Amino acid sequence: MASGSANWQEPPFVTMQRLTATDLDRVRQLITRITGLAGLEPDRVARLTLAVNEIATNAIQHGGGEAGVTIQIEADQVVIEVNDTGPGIPTDIAVDLPEPEATHGRGLWLANQLCDEVQLRSGATGTLVRLVMALA
């Protein structure tokens, strides 16, 4: 754990399943609390929380109405995975910033801007997005 984790009280691994839009506030609060206690700096906590909110919102909207979120604190990083059981993301989806007049399509782009690393696995049985932030 990072040196700022002396007050760590939470388990290093938390999984929440079957989340809907009404659960997003609780997810944001939990991420903020856990990652802050783990030693992630406040501006990085805010960036990661926003990225997870965007990805979880996408998972709920486009992946069958529910999402799962797993938060894992490792020795030198925070890893948050968001998964759904939807039909998958099209292989030709752009991760570029959409045109200013577009009303959707910024979630993956934003997560890539905010996190140290973003990994995406998608197929016919669902999508998993892995968001990583270094603790140091």
Low-confidence parts, pLDDT < 50 over ≥5 residues? 1-6
Assembly classification: single chain
Give the strand order of the largest sheet, numbering strands 1, 2, ... along the chain: 1-2-3-5-4
Roughly what fraction of the amino acids lie in strands?
25-35%
CATH fold name: Heat Shock Protein 90
**Global outline:** globular
Give me the strand/helix succession. Answer: EHHEEHEE
* Percent helix range: 25-40%
Total of DSSP H or I helical runs spanning 4+ residues: 3
* Count of individual beta strands: 5
Taking all residues together, what is the mean pLDDT?
A: 88
Global structural class: alpha+beta
CATH architecture field: 2-Layer Sandwich
* Cα distance spanning the termini: 10 Å
Q: Which value, in Å, is the CA radius of gyration?
A: 15 Å
Query: What is the top-level CATH class?
Result: Alpha Beta
In total, the number of domains comes to: 1
CATH superfamily: Histidine kinase-like ATPase, C-terminal domain
